[in-house]
Specification:
Elements lengths: L1 H15 L6 H4 L10 H15 L6 H29 L14 H20 L14 H23 L9 H11 L3
Helix pairs in contact: 1-3, 4-5
């Protein structure tokens, strides 16, 4: 459920920014629940489809679980990694860890590197076609697809996240969501 929750939030954010096919559909807010139910259903449906191979193959379940863990860890640590790359050029916001930012950031990035390697290892020995962990192959396919999509299309039109949250924007969103 935590993966579905995180994934639906990312689907909503990416569709808000126009970065997903059919963004208008995934970005809609349900007026009754005030949640992006279409994004939630897409995330739940995707999780269901990814979980189906487990009915026939335990190796597929290990790979899907590993991919979910690796994906979440990488998604959460990526901003920290990028902040570390900026070094002293990084402009801090109102909330930060002060002098602890650098050591905690380094520890976080190292932890994600460690856990990513750990979750890509085979689950059992000896390694056979049934015990091999296919996670590295799946991660490379996803990264390859994203990289090709960026080079071929997205770099030409995607300008980055849209800031959402000025007082006027939030008031407009609230007025749109009022139940009639």
């Amino acid at each position: 459920m935590s993966s579905v929750t995180a994934n639906s939030r990312m689907i909503y954010a990416f569709s808000r920014d126009g970065a997903l096919p059919a963004s208008g559909l995934w970005h809609k807010i349900n007026k009754r629940t005030r949640t992006p139910t279409n994004a939630i259903w897409l995330a739940a449906g995707g999780a269901f489809v990814l979980g189906l191979p487990y009915l026939w193959n335990n190796t597929a379940y290990v790979a899907v679980t590993s991919i979910a863990v690796i994906g979440l860890y990488i998604a959460y640590v990526l901003p920290t990694f990028l902040r570390l790359l900026r070094g002293r050029d990084f402009e801090r916001g109102p909330w930060h860890l002060g002098r602890w930012s650098l050591p905690i950031g380094i520890i976080a990035v190292l932890w994600v590197v460690f856990i990513t390697i750990l979750f890509m290892l085979p689950a059992s020995y000896p390694i056979t076609k049934d015990s091999f962990n296919y996670t590295p192959i799946a991660v490379l396919v996803v990264l390859g697809f994203a990289g090709i999509w960026w080079v071929v299309s997205a770099r030409k039109w995607f300008t980055g996240p849209k800031v959402q949250g000025s007082a006027q924007e939030l008031a407009a969103i609230e007025s749109d969501l009022e139940v009639v």
